[in-house]
Write a structure and sequence with these properties.
The protein is an all-alpha fold. The chain has a domain of about 30 residues. The protein is elongated. The mean pLDDT is about 75.
Length: about 140
C-alpha cells in the first residue's frame, strides 16, 4: 500500500497556485477599469461648455475667497475677545506688580552704597616679605 499525503497539507499550495494563475487576469481587469474611468471624465466641449466652465470656476473661486475672509474675521474677533477678557482678569495682578516695582525703586534710592566698589577689578597688595613666585 502506498501512502499519499493528506489533502489538508496540499490546500495552501493549491491556493498559492490558483492565485498565481489568476494574477494576469486580475491585472487585465484593473487596466480595463482604468480605461473606463478615463473615458468618463467630464471635459467641456464646444465654446459654450468652455465658457460655462470658466464662469463656474470664477464663481467658485470668489465664493471660496468670501468664506475664507469671513472665517478669518471671526477668528480675529474671537482673538480680541479672549485677549480683552485676559487683560481684564489680570488687571489687579498688574497693579500689584506696579506697586512692588515702585517700592523697590524707592528703597534702592534710599540706600547709599557702602564700601569701595571697583567694577570687576581685583586689588591685591603683595607684602614685600613674601615671594610672589615671579622672577
Amino acid at each position: 500500500m502506498t501512502r499519499t499525503a493528506p489533502v489538508v497539507h496540499c490546500l495552501p499550495y493549491t491556493f498559492i497556485l490558483l492565485a498565481i494563475r489568476k494574477l494576469p487576469s486580475m491585472q487585465r481587469e484593473r487596466s480595463s477599469f482604468n480605461a473606463r474611468t478615463a473615458r468618463m471624465t467630464l471635459q467641456p466641449t464646444g465654446f459654450f461648455g468652455k465658457l460655462f466652465a470658466i464662469i463656474a470656476g470664477t464663481v467658485l473661486l470668489v465664493l471660496g475667497l468670501m468664506f475664507s475672509v469671513v472665517i478669518i474675521a471671526v477668528a480675529v474677533v474671537l482673538g480680541f475677545i479672549i485677549w480683552g477678557w485676559f487683560w481684564w482678569k489680570t488687571r489687579a495682578l498688574r497693579q500689584q506688580m506696579r506697586e512692588q516695582m515702585q517700592q523697590a525703586a524707592e528703597t534702592m534710592h534710599e540706600a547709599e552704597p557702602s564700601g569701595r566698589v571697583i567694577e570687576g577689578e581685583v586689588i591685591r597688595r603683595d607684602d614685600e616679605g613674601e615671594p610672589s613666585g615671579r622672577p
